[in-house]
Amino acid sequence: MASLLKELPSMSTILSLYASISGLSMLIRTILNEMIPRGMRDLIAKNFSDFFATYFSSDFTFIIEDRWQAVENETFRAVEVYLPTKVGPSTKSLLIGTNDTNNIFAPPKPGVPVDVKVVDFFQGMHFEWTLCEKEAKKYYHRQKKFFELKCKSNYREQVMQSYLPYISKTAAAILNNRETLNICTYDNEDSTWESTVFKHPATFDTLAMDPDLKKFIIEDLDLFVQRKDYFQSVGRAWKRGYLLYGPPGTGKSTLVAAIANYLRFNIYDLQLQGVRNDAQLRRILTSTTNRSILLIEDIDCSTKSSRSRDRNKNPKEDHDDDDDEGSDQLDNKLSFDPGVTLSGLLNFIDGLWSSCGDERIIIFTTNYKEKLDPALLRPGRMDVHIYMGHCTPAAFRKLAFKYLGIKEHVLFKCIEDLIQSPVITPAEVAQHLMKRGEPQVALQSLIEFISMKEAEMVEKNEAKKDEQEVIKEEVGKQDEKQSKILTTSAYLT
């Protein structure tokens, strides 16, 4: 042992050798820097790095961000749905909660916390998932999320060809069989959609609507969801636009709820008044997901003018009404901000941006269809126009069965005769039927209410007729006076 230690070089010899090697390496680096251009050096360094990473590293990492270019990343969404089902004993922490505000006893659902590893196995392969966050661009005002998938480098092809498609199919099955739906509203501060559980009891079975109209809507929805290949073959985006119009209280919002429950689609409720400009509108709309309903209520209230771009009014009258803005600007701008245009909305629902998403229902509601610009009303934007009118006999019978539990009564004929004229809405009928538990009393009260409304309508029409007569008489006097002036002027001439 002692002889072996004597043969080892001394510390001073080792330091001297290290200094010689360091000096030589610095000399070689200086010569290379002088002789080889920077671009060539970077290429050589990259090739060496790739070589060592390929042959000496056995790990590979996939990055799946929440947005892909300008739209939501569907792969991220699929992983987000799939991964909570794979939380197991190896997961060190678990995110749980519920957004079901209607049921405080609802069991919490699992979620994946940030920076927590989730292990998954697929066809004998081992995978490690981690949800990460990082600062996003300033205009998002929120953290940007992404998943990291770590695996062996020789699994790369299987991940792309088998594993990720399997995740997408599994996530689609989970979404199709989901028990609860969400309704989402846009949070301008965080620049993201906020959701809560949507549990509206309305269905097509409970909907007080004309049976033929109800059948038409159901068949149209069924045909839409079954025709993906057809839409692709004719070169159209897979979407459908509905316009629900009619007086307040006729069940437009209830029909939206019934459609969502029937299709099992989430609802994105967009308030146009809160959108600042076209750029934000495009970002908001492209962040909605497939298999969803985009709801824009009271679209007529989002425009400065109810007049069409094809109006034939006197230009002078238009100028008098719109001193501050030109008529073209008036028709094309939305009321909440000069930067938001009607064309910005049209471009998403029927322009190039309409192709950014599949299997989407776009529903507009309005109380005054005549106020809408014709550009919004044409097919491709609002494909189906559904008039939600006053209560019909068939709708009344549906409401009577739902609220009173009766299918026939001696007073039904009287009520059906009274509601032939458009004097009462389904909401008013439902409100009266809810007030009384006894069918006889409830129906008698409803008859009195309808009769009172009809009398008020007659009185209002008479007053309006008298007002028109007065106006007509005043116009006649003005015309007669003007005629006398012209006659006198002609005589003097």
TrEMBL record:
Query: Which CDD domains does the protein's record reference?
Result: RecA-like_BCS1
| Protein family per UniProt | Belongs to the AAA ATPase family. BCS1 subfamily.
Gene Ontology terms, MF aspect: ATP binding; ATP hydrolysis activity
This chain belongs to the protein called AAA+ ATPase domain-containing protein
Region (Disordered) spans which residues? 304-332, 473-493
Here the segments flagged for biased composition (Polar residues) are 484-493
Provide the species name: Populus trichocarpa (Western balsam poplar)
Query: What's an example Gene Ontology biological process for this entry?
Result: response to stress
